Amino acid sequence: MRKNMEITKSQKRDFKNKIAVFGILFLLYNIGLTRNLIWLRDFSSLIFFVLTGILIWNNIRNVKHEDDKMHFYLVALILNWVIRNIKMLVVEGTPFICLLGPSSFITLSISFFIVACIFVHCAKKLNKSQLILDAAIIQSVLVAIGIAVNYFSGWSEELPTWQNVAQYVYHFFELMTVVMILVVFTSFRQRRLSKHNILTLSAILSYILIRGFYQYGMTTNEIGYLWFAESIYLVPAGMLLIASEMINAGNSNIFFEVSYDENRLVDSLSKSYLVLFLGCLSIVLYMKEWISNVMMIFIFLMLAIYYVMNTAFQNTFRAEKRLRDEERKRKQLEYEVDRRTRELQQRNEELKEKNELLGDLIYFDMNLGLYTIRYLQEYLVAWNQDHPLTLMVIDIKGFKNINSLFSYAVGDEVLVQIASRLKTEYSNNAVLFRLNSNKFGLLFLRSVEEERILQIINEIHAMGEDPIEIDEFKIRLKFSIGIASYEQNSADIQKILESAEYAEREAHRMIQENAYQIFDREIERKIEREKRIRRLLEYIDFDQEFELYYQPQCDVERNLLGMEALLRWNSPELGQVSPGEFIPIAEQSSVILRIAQWTLRKGIEQIKIWNNTYQQNYRIGINISTKFIENSSFLKYVQDIIAEFQIPPEWLDLEVTETSLINFNKEIIQLFEKLAELGVSISIDDFGTGYSSLSYINSFRISNIKIARELVMTLENNPKESALVKAIIMMANSLELDIIAEGVEEEAQLQILDSLGCRKIQGYYFGKPQTAADFEYNFIAGDHSFVRQ
Hints:
8-stranded mixed barrel; alpha/beta; 12% strand; single chain; elongated; 30 helices; 18 strands
């Protein structure tokens, strides 16, 4: 549908000027009428009608849209009335309203009737059957009433027979016009009917009403009716002019945008009131004896027929409407199904593309240009087992420290350059893989002699010695390498990856910097033992198999300050298992959390017994796994267990390794702050063997530094180590941190540490780790100056 045009200011001004001109002519016309100035009345009305005809015709010519022209063709039919008025004023000198000629009556009424019929015909979706029924019944009832009233009043006797017939024909078409217009008005929602259509139909009704007033006044000699009819005689023409101007100026919807409400036509309350009014009017006229019995029977028969047929029409319309609604819903459903099908097809295509891209990402690392571990796994599954393989797993040692000390961007660039070096050197002889964040794989599609393996290992270590330059940084790398081979017809080709990773792990544990390990039977036995330990830890009875041992912490005057709790495992199947063996395995699963909680509970329970029994304030050091610290429940568990045993938080010292600090984030720093506020002290264990810097130490709320055993053991014979220990002590003193030296076994070590300013000692010199009972007997219950005198 065509949208309304915007009205310009000039159009509004022209429209107001036209209204003003016609208003003046209308005023002059009424002045001539009231003052009996025939020349003024005729002249003003003549000018009024001439201008109206010219402007309406001009509007018809200016409008280009065919739908608007259709409306103007309807208005043009009404020009018959305007032209006749001009003709009678010019030729006869009498306004058309004064003429009562039969031919004029019939011609004009037929013109109005044609206008109404064309209007109804052009209205889209108007149910013609219902309209014909409404118009026919209402017309019949009105004609019957009109005949009865006319007969009763004797109007027909006052006119010649031929004029009487012409007048009846005129009234018939006029009445049909009124009925059709009323039916249209009651069938459409007025707010949906365009303004110019309302004006056009209202103009017709107005003229018919004016003619009725005038004819009634002529018949009854009532001067008031005659004067009123003549005074507003120009109004219908003005309404038609305004309607045409509204379309031409774009101030109204076009004719064919009339919105039709089917439910309103079927269940029109307005038409029901109209029919009810006709019935009541008939009863009133019958009671006044203006309508005979036969005519009354005819009227109510018509109304009964209307009720029956209207009910049938309504039922039919409702059924048709339901069918149309169902058809519309079906088409809408088909459209939605089709639309959703197209959307699903499009999404499937997009998903297919994404899956292909994801497949590429799963099997190929875009950043490094290497295959992934997933590709390696599937590669091994598809490998022809008649051919041998050799796999090398290469791990960058301390790679997390590179990310933490420099940045992740620097770490990523290190990986890119190492990958590039490996591809340059071995891409022709092996398939390269990225196994995880900092591990690479070299798969040789043949058996490699041990001599060649050693040569490749040396080449890879040399790559690490060649510094990687990134911005202002020069970074040298150390590698741990694991090697595994698959020989022809051996047990399981897929175990080659597991074997190479275990070998690399063994190399990683070695003290030397550039270590390697070839998978052999010894490692295979370690693997089997590791699997067995992992299985036993899942079902361990903590209270029966675990036990805490305690090692004293003393000052140089041999006074006991506290102790460190050390976990021991006495397995019914494996016997004594070292913490260095089972703790790393436990940290690979959630069992480490249960172990850490048990250790913390038992240690706090024991220190409470000793301090309360002997009225002391010893402090117990308990090693805490990084996994437990990073767990969200850690702080609450510490708070709850302190509250449960009702001990001063100062009795508890939590020990974390130096290497774990570098991987802690801001949340852990905040956690240490809360522990310090609680009163719990934090100690750095094995200090001096990792990568911590002064900035890291200063970032955490730490109370104690425990100098690593490896540094203490070489104090006597290594001046560099002695200088390093002295530097650590000086740094700790400047930061107001307590210092404990671990691993003190000789008197000479004790003397050197004392001279360097370290006053707290832990090691075999004072005592090995012991059970709670032995520790209490040897260090608490007796004379505390127990140590060698």
